[in-house]
Amino acid sequence: MLRAVLYASIGLIAYAQAGYGALLALLRRVLPARPVRRAPIEPRVTLVIAAHDEEVVIERKVRNALALDWPREKLQVVVASDGSTDRTVELARAAGADLVLDLPRGGKIRAQDAAVRRAPGEIVAFSDANAMWEPDALRELVSAFADPEVGYACGQVTFVNEAGTNQEGVYWRYEMWLREMESDLASVTGGNGAIYATRREAYVEVDPIMGHDLSFPFRMVKNGWRAVYVPQARATEKMVPSIEGEFARKRRMMSHGWPIVVRGGLLDPRGYDARYALFVASHRALRYATPFLHLVALAATIARWRRHRLLLAAQLGLLAAAAAGGRLRRRPLLLARYYVLTTASLAAGLYDWLRHGTPAGWDAPEGTR
Q1: Which element (helix H / strand E) includes 152?
Q2: CA distances to 101, 291, 293, 339 from 345, in Å
Q3: Percent of the chain with pLDDT over 70
Q4: Cα 51 to Cα 90, 101, 252, 366, distances in angstroms
Q5: What is the DSSP letter of 146?
Q6: Do residues 217 and 227 lie in contact, with contact meaning Cβ atoms separated by under 8 Å?
Q7: Contact indicator for 127, 47 with CB cutoff of 8 Å
Q8: pLDDT at residue 210, as a whole number
Q9: How many CB atoms lie under 10 A from the CB of residue 225?
Q10: Which helix (H) or strand (E) holds 197?
Q11: For the chain, N or C: smaller number of CB within 10 Å?
Q12: Which domains are present in the chain?
C-alpha cells in the first residue's frame, strides 16, 4: 500500500507539471479543434480599470487606454477607484478618463461591478492599472466576440523587469502555451487581470473575495459560453522582482482562489463537457493539490528510504537547491527556489483562507509599480 501511495503521488505530480501539457499536445493532434471565428467588429466598448492607490501609474494607464486603436466615440474608459487615499481619482480625471468612480473601499470585484453597472458598451473589457496594452490589443481582443459562442476572452500578458530573481517568466510562457491548447480544444480554465473582456450580457457578479481570473472562465462555460484565449491581444505588466515577493503574491492570490475551488463551483462538473472537465481536473484541481502530493511523496519515501535512497536524495536535493537559491543567483538554483516557494504558496493560501478568511480589498504587490 505504501509503495502504491508513493508511486501514485509522484506520478500525479509529474502529470500535473508536465504530463498534462503532453496530453494537450496529443489531443490537439487527434481531436477536432474549435477555432474561434474571429472577425473585425466595432461594438461599443467600456474599458474598466479598477484602482486602489495607483497615483504612480494611473495617468499613464489612462493615456494608454485612450491611445488604443478604437473609434473614440465607441470607447468609454472608466476608472473605478476602490477607496483610494492618494491622488488616484484626481489624476485619472486629469488624464481624460470618461468616468471616474470614487467608491468606498469594497474590494476590486465590487469596484468592477459598480463600473459594469454604468457601462453602456456591448463589450466590457478589464485591465490592471499597471498593465499597458499594445495599440491593437483591444481590436484583437474584441474580434473574438464575432463568434456568437464566445462570452469571455483573455489576452496575452508579458511580464517585464526580469532584473531580479523572480523566474515567473519561465512558468508564464508555459502557462500561456497550455492556455492556447485549452482554448483551441474547448475553453480556458483561467485568465489574467491584465487584459480580458466579456459580453455585457454574460457578465456575472461573484463573491467579492473570488477574483475574475479563476471564477469567470468556468462560470462562462456553465452558462453556455466559451471562454477563449487571444494571444494576438498583448499587454505588458511589471513583474514582482523577487521570488520571495512572487511567493507572497501567489499566496494572496490563492487565498482568493481556494474559496472558488472549495465552495465556488469550480469542481462541480455539471455544465462541463468531457474535455473541459478533464482540463479543470488536470490544470486546476490537481495543480492546486501539488504541495500536498509532495508531502505525501516525501513521507512515503522516508518510510521506505532503504529501498528509495536515490529518490529521497532527489527530493532533499530539490529542497537544498531551493535554500541555496536564496543566497546564490545561479539559474538552476533560482528555478528550484521558484518551484518550491510557488508550490508552497498554494498551501499557504489555503491556510490563510481557513485560518483568517480572505479580505475583499487588495494592495499592489511589491515592486510592480
Answers
A1: strand 150-160
A2: 34, 9, 14, 10
A3: 99
A4: 12, 10, 17, 16
A5: G
A6: yes
A7: yes
A8: 92
A9: 21
A10: strand 196-199
A11: N
A12: 45-242 (3.90.550.10)
Residue carrying the nine cell digits 505588466: 237
Residues 347, 350: Cα–Cα separation, whole Å: 5
Cα separations (Å) of 328 from 114, 241, 244, 354? 47, 16, 14, 35
Q: What is the pTM of this model?
A: 0.93
Residue 96 is placed in which grid cell? 481624460
- CA 11 vs CA 45, 210, 300, 302: distances in Å: 46, 31, 13, 17
**How does 227-240 read in b/e, with b if 16+ C-beta sit within 10 Å?**
bbbbebbbbbbbbb
Q: What is the DSSP letter of 180?
A: H
C-alpha gyration radius of the chain? 21
> What's the half-sphere exposure (Cβ side, CA atoms, 13 Å) at 106?
16
Are residues 317 and 309 in contact, defined by beta-carbon separation less than 8 angstroms?
Answer: no
Listing DSSP states for 33-89 in one string gives ------------EEEEEEESS-TTTHHHHHHHHHTSSS-GGGEEEEEEEES--SSHH
Q: CA-to-CA distance for 61 and 270, rounded, in angstroms?
A: 39
Residue 1 has pLDDT above 90, yes or no: no
- Is 153 in a helix, a strand, or coil? strand
Among 331, 304, 328, smallest CA distance to 315 is for 304
- Report CA-CA distances (Å) from 362 to 90, 255, 262, 342: 20, 12, 21, 19
Q: Write the pLDDT tens digit of every residue in 279-326.
A: 999 999 999 999 999 999 999 999 988 888 999 999 999 999 999 999
pLDDT in the model for residue 162:
64
pLDDT at 221: 98
Cβ–Cβ < 8 Å for 124, 198: yes
Among the listed residues 289, 146, 156, 145, the one whose alpha carbon sits nearest the alpha carbon of residue 220: 145
Q: Which set of grid coordinates corresponds to residue 90?
A: 484626481
* Residue that the C-alpha cell 456553465 belongs to: 222
- Other beta carbons less than 10 A from residue 78's beta carbon: 26
Q: What is the pLDDT of residues 150-196, one digit of tens each?
A: 999 999 999 887 667 877 888 889 999 999 999 999 999 999 999 99
